[in-house]
Amino acid sequence: MDYKHCDLGIIINISSGIAKIVVLKGQHCRNETVNIKFRKESGSTLKKYMIVGITKDHRSFIYDDLGRD
């Protein structure tokens, strides 16, 4: 998936397998808060205030784990 085809968001909370994300820039919305489930194995790499790409249907997100070895 290409970041050009996503809305831009920032994670504001991570809890119980759900990331609470504020949509910063989107084609049809802005400043909307969405809750998106994520896989357990992704949880250790997610960080609060991380910028993510949100799919247009707001059901999933993508990110680049720059901190990995």
Structure description:
The structure is a single chain. This protein is mainly beta. Helices cover 6% and strands 41% of the residues. The protein has one helix at residues 40-43; strands spanning 7-15, 18-25, 33-37, 51-54, 61-62. The protein has a 5-stranded antiparallel beta sheet, with no helix packed on it. The longest helix is centred in the middle third of the chain and has 4 residues, at 40-43. The chain starts with 6 loop residues before the first strand and ends in a 7-residue tail after the last strand.
- The amount of beta strand, in percent, is 35-45%
- Low-confidence regions: none
Mean pLDDT reading: 84
Rg on CA atoms, Å: 11 Å
Estimate the helix proportion, in percent: under 10%
The arrangement of helices and strands along the chain is: EEEHEE
Strand order of the largest sheet: 3-2-1-4-5
Distance between the termini: 23 Å
Number of strands: 5
Structural class designation: mainly beta
Largest sheet: 5 strands, antiparallel
Total number of helical segments?
A: 1
Q: Which shape, going by the Cα principal axes?
A: globular
